[in-house]
Amino acid sequence: MNALHLAGPAAVRAREGLTAVFFGGVVPASAEEELLAEEIGRTLGGAGYQLLHGGYNGLMEAAARGAASQGTAVTAVTLIGKHDEWGAFNPHATMSVHLPDLGARLNHYLESVDLVVAMGGGVGTLHELTAALYYATTVRPVPVCLAGPAALRLLAFLRGEKWLFETPTRPLGFLHTAETAQDFRALLGALDTSPIGGA
User: Fold this and answer.
1) How confident is the model at residue 193 (pLDDT cuts 50, 70, 90)?
2) Eight-class DSSP state of 76
3) 178 burial class (0-12, 13-18, 19+ CB within 10 angstroms)?
4) What is the DSSP string of 132-192?
5) For labeling, which of 21, 104, 108, 198 is most exposed (least CB within 10 Å)?
6) Residue 51 contacts residue 151 (beta carbons within 8 Å)
7) What is the C-alpha to C-alpha distance for residues 104 and 140, in angstroms, rounded to an integer?
């Protein structure tokens, strides 16, 4: 595979409707965060979103399990040459995309997504989240939701240390938080659900 590879029976369906990307680590901060990730995935699937995620275990797998329970397309997005090293995809991925580098992977996640959801994780998740925050402040104000206690602690730190702050040229109206599954359902119900480019 050299650039973009799509595989799986849901490939055509995945190009329709709404798309959410889920960023979350392979080692959940707690059992409660893992349950929250699954409920977020279930809520997204029930609302008609297809799910993009890293494809592996932990919070990613929990979100994928929730989305798959609603019959939605779940896409694993990985790097060419790293799949063998990183291991098999979780069993809920219905298709996969293999990209040549981190930049292409981030672009694939962000260029047409309707919603970004980020939870706690390691440095990879942090990289994805900061890329999404930068993208939403400079390219297109795609909604970004930080969910769960770990992500909310990170957000408080970023704001407190002025790594993330609002200016007239970089408003933060795209940024949302959800501490619980109920908060996330309420947020999703309030978002404009028109796919990018109109419906």
Assistant:
1) low
2) E
3) buried
4) HHHHHHHT----EEEEHHHHHHHHHHHHHTTSS---SSS--TTEEEESSHHHHHHHHHHS-
5) 198
6) no
7) 17
